[in-house]
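Before relying on records like the one below, remember that each one covers exactly one chain. Contacts with other chains, cofactors or solvent are not represented anywhere in the record.
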Amino acid sequence: MALLLLLFQLLGTVAFAASGALTGITKKMDLFGILVLAVIVAVGGGIIRDLVLGITPPAVFRDPGYAVLAAGTAAVLCIPGVRRYLTRHRKRYDRALLLMDTVGLASFTVVGIQTAYGVSPSFSPFLLVFVGVVTGVGGGVLRDVLAGDMPGIFVRQFYASAAVIGAVVCVLLWTVSGSFAAMTFGMLVIILLRLAAEHYNWRLYRPEK
């Protein structure tokens, strides 16, 4: 499980970094801005999680591997030839990015819960769910705020909602079936809900004027 979870987090880091880099490119930022935005998306949720849990310095500053991977991903996407290739194969790239982003959201969410349990098993379920969700979506919120956009979790169909439901499942199962089953089922719920929402275009109720 640990090795598979690591692989999922690496895939998620690449997907999150790519989304940040592409946002920076679209906003016509310079290379520094693009790299910063990519790194923030990839590690921002983990930083918020650690600050909420009182883990200082946050893990990314003790082991910068994920930040380096995110910056490397952004640098590759800044190469003109790579961008031209992705433009020619846009549909294939979008499908791959959706899958990687979904896996990253799921794995980051359950790892956030695992991290909280590692600090104290007596944390309230609300805190555990909050920490899990913020680990999964926090970086994207920071990206959108810095880019001057409405945070995507408030308008994207069933994104943060999938993380919330998966986090609740993970927390409920943790003391009943153990961490392995809880994290596995939590991830599966998030992945299935996110992919189904994308396929069927599920949206939460949005009041009209």
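The chain has one domain: 2-200.
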